[in-house]
Automatic annotation (TrEMBL):
Assigned protein family: Belongs to the mannitol dehydrogenase family.
Keywords: NAD, Oxidoreductase
Keyword Plastid: no
Single biological process term from Gene Ontology: mannitol catabolic process
The EC number(s) this enzyme carries: 1.1.1.17
UniProt protein name: Mannitol-1-phosphate 5-dehydrogenase
Enzymatic reactions: D-mannitol 1-phosphate + NAD(+) = beta-D-fructose 6-phosphate + NADH + H(+)
GO terms, molecular function: mannitol-1-phosphate 5-dehydrogenase activity
HAMAP family: Mannitol_dehydrog
Domain annotation Mannitol dehydrogenase C-terminal: ranges: 202-377
Pfam families per UniProt: Mannitol_dh (PF01232), Mannitol_dh_C (PF08125)
GO cellular-component term (any): cytosol
Binding residue positions for NAD(+): 3-14
Length: 382
């Protein structure tokens, strides 16, 4: 069985690649990073270490890699033959890989009627659906028709904290032991067997719970921690003020999730506690600038801050004070090596705060939420 995986980065190697390997797939990574592609082909294996007391390691074998920049034709052939395609490249990159996937599918439908699932493992709602839209824009009518019942694009939620890596062994990835990979069964074609993958009929509660708890809490720690001068998430979580702020924000998103999806209160509290512990894992050194990366994406209307803030007003009927403070912290994030942060700061200087918020978040100018964010921004302190 062949799995083609786009993105041999932290999640690609540290999570999806390892589960596919454990499930018996040969994993063919596709990446633009020539150094990683060459190393994967040279070593044909890499190590995973677990961020706990166990010092346990596993080796992922039966792998190869293709550079999509220098050998796009090989990627097309691999997709034509694959039994599974997955991605972990970042939401903004999905439109950029759609062309190659479309070429692979166009070739595939000429030679095979084997079903294929393409799963985007990105931190976003509807990642595979977006990828499908972008792929279909590049197929002609008969190719689309041939793909319709043969190619599935099931949406997914993926959860495992994998920080940036800095080992002498460039391929090694240290990961937290916890993981969760939940996939929408209704979007799948054919039979799929992947160890550790949970299939569900309704993904919405799972993806919203994950994004608005793990990722909301994480980004609150990152942006507040950055303002306090901390470098890593576990340093941030040792600060009682910010830790309380993370918890209070997760109480807001929790109330929304409980009201909207009927989660049990006590179960959800346990989920929150577990996540706070995961953020504080002493075996993981996760930079606030990785967790806070791409603030334009993170301030988007469907992402981890603005979407729960708006939904909190609708489902809970109160002002999301902590979420609004976190949005203010995102707007204050001025890390010079993050191009999104630089752009936001420039927009605020040139166009003003309200116009910038409106532009990135799509929150209406005259709304209560806009007023609250502006107030939190101007009175921001830790
Ligand atoms: N790291 C985590 O803790 C974590 C957990 C869950 C989900 N995610 C999600 O997984 C995705 C990847 O995150 P990551 O942390 O692994 O990032 P990463 O930067 O470590 O990996 C991304 C990889 O994609 C490659 N890439 C970029 N453009 C490409 C292209 N056009 N074609 C092929 N490869 C390309 C990069 O070279 C890199 O190797 C993101 O959507 C992220 O939100 C990350
Ligand atoms: O990957 P991002 O930029 O969407 O978010 C940063 C982190 O919150 C994220 O990578 C988490 O570590 C991950 O989602 C945990 O499952």
């Amino acid at each position: 069985m062949l799995a083609v995986h786009f993105g041999a980065g932290n999640i690609g190697r540290g999570f999806i690649g390892s589960l596919l390997h454990q499930s018996g797939y040969e994993v063919c990574f596709v990446d633009v990073n020539q150094e990683i592609v060459d190393l994967l082909n040279q070593k044909q294996a890499y190590k995973i270490g677990y961020a706990d007391d166990s010092k346990k390691e596993m080796t992922v074998t039966n792998i190869r890699a293709i550079s999509s920049q220098t050998h796009p034709e090989q990627v097309v052939s691999a997709i034509a033959e694959a039994d599974m395609v997955t991605t972990a490249v970042g939401p903004n990159v999905l439109p950029l890989i759609a062309g190659l996937i479309a070429k692979g599918l166009a070739k595939r439908v000429q030679i095979s009627d084997k079903p294929l699932n393409i799963i985007a493992c990105e931190n976003m709602i509807g990642g595979s659906s977006l990828l499908k839209e972008k792929v279909y824009e590049q197929l002609n009518e008969s190719e689309k028709e041939a793909c319709e019942n043969m190619i599935g694009f099931p949406d997914a939620a993926v959860d495992r904290i994998v920080p940036n890596q800095s080992h002498q062994d460039r391929l090694m990835v240290v990961v937290e032991p916890f993981y969760e990979w939940v996939v929408d069964r209704t979007g799948m074609v054919g039979k799929v067997r992947v160890q550790g993958m949970t299939l569900v009929d309704d993904l919405k509660p799972y993806i919203e719970r994950k994004l608005y708890t793990v990722n909301t809490g994480h980004v609150v720690a990152a942006y507040l921690g950055y303002q306090a001068g901390f470098k890593t998430i576990n340093e941030v979580m040792a600060n009682p003020t910010i830790r309380d702020h993370v918890r209070n924000t997760l109480e807001e998103t929790g109330q929304l999730l409980i009201n909207k999806h009927d989660f049990q209160d006590q179960e959800h509290q346990k989920y929150i506690e577990k996540i706070i512990q995961r953020f504080s894992n002493p075996h993981i050194s996760d930079e606030v600038t990785r967790v806070g990366r791409s603030p334009i994406r993170k301030l988007g209307p469907n992402d981890r801050l603005v979407s729960p803030a708006r939904q909190y007003m609708k489902y809970v009927g109160k002002q999301p004070v902590y979420l609004a403070k976190a949005i203010a912290a995102a707007l204050l994030y001025d890390f010079e090596q993050d191009p999104d942060a630089v752009t936001i700061q420039k927009n605020i200087r040139q166009d003003g705060l309200e116009s910038t918020i409106q532009h990135y978040t799509q929150i209406p100018s005259d709304s209560d939420l806009m007023k609250l964010i502006i107030q939190q921004y101007h009175q921001f302190s830790l």
